[in-house]
Design a protein that fits this description.
This protein is α/β, with parallel strands linked by helices. It is built from 13 helices and 19 strands. The protein starts with 10 loop residues before the first helix and ends in a 12-residue tail after the last strand.
């Protein structure tokens, strides 16, 4: 019987660039968070490339060329500039800079469901109830919302948590309040890109900025469109704070990707993933605490699918290796450019790059009437970390000969999240009250990965 996977939501279903994604901003919380942080622009940042769908460890960073033919990677392995580290042949650009990243090959957990697996990876907490239809929403905030709560808005009015082109569908800020949700910016590769808030600000230039009634009308319309819960208080103080974010030159500068050298933009790749990584670097360097890139498909069209590489992914028949062969070079170009850029700019200690999905893929290749693929496999998968002042050029952990389960240094998403929080300067033992007033620690388990520290 064919094992049907309803799969994660496709990019097209989410890619809706609309009004400013800042609904529910509470005046008291924003002011308190801003006053409590008082940090400089040198605060640390995390850029996560969330590979939506669950990338195969065997076709990326944990190839098993000696495994039986029904298990081993369908791609060849190539050496990197670090002796002993081999990666996929479709990652030639990353192979040249392996001294600037480290691989974790022993991640594992126990949930093979897209949404619930994503909840574990992004929140550091296991869902209390699983949803096989993959429509579940998190009971706890993800690490970006936590960073927003703890660190608050930046000194230059940049939002602390940004997602692009859209937010992860399975997480929400929950008991922290909707104002700690992500700021969605859309697709930066489109012509004349500008995120929604800059479009609003552009309509208030020149003398119009002095027209208070005009400004309030714009802000009230914004509030009316977004705040269906009534949590936005229409006070002058809130409006002044919103006005500051809308018109701060530092905000406009950080989002203005056209300021970058066209040669560098070409180096990243003129597509969603490439320009997304470039914009993420700009925002992180400017002070945004967390930028989460939803790495689903780099382009639209029949040749592109996400990382859910079972047979029939996205309703398309065929061999998953063909889709991966198309997709992997996009990741190689964007990721290698991002890593090289942060090191060349000397911000590799400030910025940590994390590449991870919700789980891996089954070691045994499966074939059915729809084609050939690998199914969900949370028992063993890989992640990449670059920068963050960590040790680079290392491989942490190992799996058995078929990449079925960890055999050395088994690690969990909780350990990865503890490493992220350490870099962000966030104490994972701090608690926030949930809706019932119960104290919930930021992270209930997990420790920073000592092999990288």
């Amino acid at each position: 019987m064919l094992n049907q996977c309803c799969g994660p939501h496709r990019r097209r279903e989410f890619l809706q660039v609309g009004a400013l994604a800042l609904g529910g901003l509470s005046l008291s919380d924003v002011l308190a968070a801003r006053a409590a942080t008082g940090r400089s622009s040198e605060q640390t940042s995390v850029i996560m490339l969330y590979l939506h769908g669950g990338p195969s460890q065997l076709e990326t960073y944990d190839l098993k060329p000696e495994a039986p033919s029904t298990y081993r990677s369908l791609f060849g392995s190539i050496p990197t500039n670090v002796p002993g580290i081999d990666i996929c042949e479709h990652f030639p650009l990353q192979a040249k800079i392996a001294d600037k990243f480290s691989l974790i090959r022993s991640l594992h957990h126990d949930i093979g469901i897209h949404s619930d697996g994503g909840i574990i990876v992004l929140t550091g907490k296991r869902p209390s109830r699983l949803d096989p239809t993959s429509q579940s929403k998190s009971e706890h905030p993800d690490f970006g919302s936590i960073a927003s709560k703890v660190r608050g808005m930046t000194h230059n009015s940049l939002p602390p948590y940004v997602t692009l082109p859209m937010k992860p569908y399975m997480t929400r800020p929950t008991y922290l309040g909707v104002h700690h949700g992500p700021f969605e910016v859309g697709d930066p590769s489109i012509p004349n890109f500008a995120p929604p808030h800059l479009k609003l600000a552009a309509g208030l230039e020149g003398q119009g900025l002095e027209d208070r009634k005009n400004l309030l009308r714009h802000l009230d319309r914004l509030r009316g469109n977004l705040d269906q819960s009534g949590s936005l208080e229409g006070t002058d103080q809130f409006r002044n704070l919103a006005f500051q974010m809308l018109t701060a030159p530092e905000v406009a500068d950080a989002f203005d990707i056209q300021r970058e050298d066209p040669v560098l933009r070409d180096r990243y790749g003129r597509n969603l993933w490439g320009q997304g990584c470039l914009l993420a670097r700009r925002l992180a360097e400017a002070g945004t605490a967390v930028v989460n890139l939803y790495i689903d498909t780099p382009q639209t069209g029949p040749d592109y699918t996400n990382w859910d590489d079972h047979s029939g992914n996205a309703g398309r028949p065929g061999h998953f290796a063909g889709y991966m062969r198309t997709r992997l070079p996009y990741l190689d170009q964007a990721l290698s450019a991002l890593i090289e850029d942060i090191f060349q700019r000397g911000v590799d200690r400030k910025i940590m790059v994390v590449v991870v999905g919700e789980f891996g893929r089954t070691p045994r290749i499966a074939t059915n009437s729809l084609g050939t693929g690998r199914d969900h496999w949370p028992d063993a998968y890989s992640a990449l970390i670059s920068g963050g002042g960590l040790q680079m050029g290392k491989v942490v952990g190992a799996t058995n000969s078929k990449a079925e389960f960890p055999t050395e240094c088994p690690l969990t998403p909780f350990d990865l999240m503890a490493t992220i929080y350490r870099h962000l300067g966030i104490d994972p033992q701090v608690s926030f009250p949930d809706m019932a007033g119960r104290p919930i620690p930021i992270l209930g388990e997990g420790h920073p990965i000592r092999e990288l520290i």
